[in-house]
Amino acid sequence: IIKDSSKLLPLRINASDRLLVIHPAVIDDVGEHKIRLYEYVKNKHDSTDFISMDIKPTEEQKTSIFNAVDNYSHVIFALYYHAYKSDDSSMLKQIEILEGILEKNPNTIVILLKEPFYPLGVPKKASTVLATYGKKPALLQAAVDIIFGAIKSEGSVPINIGLESSVLLRNNL
Q1: pTM for the full predicted model
Q2: What top-level class would CATH report for the domain 3-7+15-171?
């Protein structure tokens, strides 16, 4: 857990509460094109839906996501980028969607699907942020177990990554 200032974790929800998992379509670390994060959340909470988006989401995907978010008590948003380059706007497009989601639903849990050293641009409004250090199935399952309180997060980020400074970096791109 990098940040949980709104104390969303462990997730306290009723069976009737609806969850939405938003995940970019990426091939996982075992070479499969599966959305394991959604599957693991669905195993914990039956009333869970899923929206996939491209690594560089389209305007249609953005509109679809914004229209859907109001129908859910909580959102789990997976943020992924395979490489960071100053001319790569894929992460910025994902961040743009995340910012809109946070405006509509503050009960949003952000999962960084890479190293926690890349919170570049994670909006300050993101009150709950986890890092998985990758996309391996065991890492995703552990993130879901932490979200639902099945296990306790005991690790810490080995350096101060300063989420507050991420806005400065993003604005300089």
Answers
A1: 0.85
A2: alpha beta
